[in-house]
Design a protein that fits this description.
Blueprint: H1 7-13, E1 39-41, E2 44-45, E3 56-62, E4 72-77, E5 81-85, E6 91-95, E7 100-111, E8 114-123, E9 128-134, E10 140-147, E11 153-160, E12 166-172, E13 176-181, E14 191-197, E15 202-208, E16 213-218, E17 222-227, E18 237-241, E19 251-258, E20 264-270, E21 275-280, E22 286-294, E23 310-313, E24 325-330, E25 341-346, H2 347-354
Parallel strand pairs: 1-22
Antiparallel strand pairs: 2-25, 3-4, 4-5, 5-6, 7-8, 8-9, 9-10, 11-12, 12-13, 13-14, 15-16, 16-17, 17-18, 19-20, 20-21, 21-22, 23-24, 24-25
């Protein structure tokens, strides 16, 4: 039910990426609006999610503290709960939490008994922010279900400051946003520190912990940029708009590829045209180009269309993923037709497609 390409892996490493978005079914999608961007290929894909129809949504990547090749992918099933996959795509754990929509995590959160790893997820069934602990072996356990005033919790992302204090940005389908501090004083005791609203529906967001900047997607408008923390919304600027030729509504998943050497690239899912847009955060947010995840005839792994969420890491995860990994949700899991899932794309393929400098020294 899952595949990791053999010859397709080698082909994918030198190829280009075609972006997909979170679609609603496994039927044959219409032709994407853009085919003028380079295509890359997934070298592995996860097992299909358990829910039918529009179910898979948002991934996050957990890095194993001792052996990065044993790292894991968290993936939401917005009908059933939260799955955990290994890098071959096999499901390693499932938490039946209901309509879990988006997920994010941070490692190195300061708690009284030492550094911890926490994940947060929006739970539309319980109308909560689920806070989960992740063990050193990668096992997830629900630590706390924090009630929200947001009517329909939707997107979520995390921020970790230099002191190890973790924050969660939570949004709702009505445009509401809440910022929560999770662990003041070393205790897991969430406290809401800010509220604001967007005119229309948001979902994807990411915080650059190094620079202290939050990036927030407003699905039918564009990507907002603002200082992280309480009050940042008052200083927001628009990084890019769906009125450009780079983004097509809806703006969906957002994440940042930041290396120890200083590279910082924002990745955005442009759902309306099945592409992914890349921006250089160290060079005035300059647009670097777009890619799409295409069907790979060599491995038999299909591409990704109508992608909702995505996640990226620069960490060397072992053979095939030496420069890191991009994980994207696939809205139409075809050939064979199955329930939705997540595709794994080597960052080296993205770098080749966009003519980015090699980052083989990544750890």
């Amino acid at each position: 039910m899952f595949r990791r390409g053999g010859s397709g892996l080698a082909a994918g490493l030198g190829a280009v990426l075609v972006g997909g978005l979170a679609g609603g079914c496994s039927a044959e999608p219409p032709s994407p609006a853009r085919t003028d961007v380079p295509a890359v290929y997934a070298v592995a894909e996860t097992e299909p999610v358990r829910g039918g129809g529009d179910a898979a949504d948002d991934p996050a990547i957990w890095i194993h503290p001792e052996d990065a090749s044993m790292s894991l992918i968290l993936g939401t099933d917005k009908r059933r709960g939260l799955s955990v996959y290994d890098l071959s795509g096999r499901e390693a754990q499932f938490l039946p939490r209901g309509r879990v929509n988006n997920v994010d995590l941070r490692q190195g959160v300061a708690l009284a008994d030492g550094a911890a790893t926490l994940a947060v997820a929006t739970n539309r069934t319980e109308r909560t922010m689920d806070i989960l602990s992740i063990s050193a072996e990668g096992k997830l356990e629900l630590a706390l279900a924090q009630a929200l005033e947001i009517g329909d919790p939707y997107g979520i992302c995390m921020h970790l400051d230099a002191a190890g204090i973790a924050y969660a940005y939570v949004n709702g389908t009505g445009g509401e946003y809440e910022i929560w501090r999770l662990n003041e004083g070393g205790a897991l005791k969430p406290e809401r520190i800010d509220r604001f609203s967007l005119p229309t529906k948001p979902e994807g967001c990411v915080v650059d912990d190094h620079a202290g900047i939050a990036y927030i997607g407003e699905e039918e408008h564009g990507i907002w940029k603002m200082p992280a923390g309480a009050g940042g919304f008052d200083e927001k600027t628009l990084l890019d708009s769906v009125d450009s030729d780079r983004l097509a509504a809806d703006v969906e998943g957002l994440d940042i590829y930041r290396t120890a050497q200083g590279s910082a690239i924002l990745v955005a899912s442009s759902q309306g045209d099945y592409t992914f847009a890349f921006y250089d955060l160290n060079n005035g947010d300059r647009y670097l180009g777009s890619v799409r995840v295409a069907d790979d005839p060599a491995s038999g792994i299909d591409g990704a269309e109508e992608t909702d969420g995505l996640a990226v890491t620069p960490v060397n995860l072992g053979p095939g993923f030496e420069q890191g990994l991009l994980v994207v949700q696939d809205g139409f899991n075809r050939r064979p037709e199955e329930r939705q899932n997540f595709k794994l794309v080597p960052w080296s393929a993205v770098a080749a497609a966009l003519n980015l400098p090699a980052a083989a020294e990544n750890e």
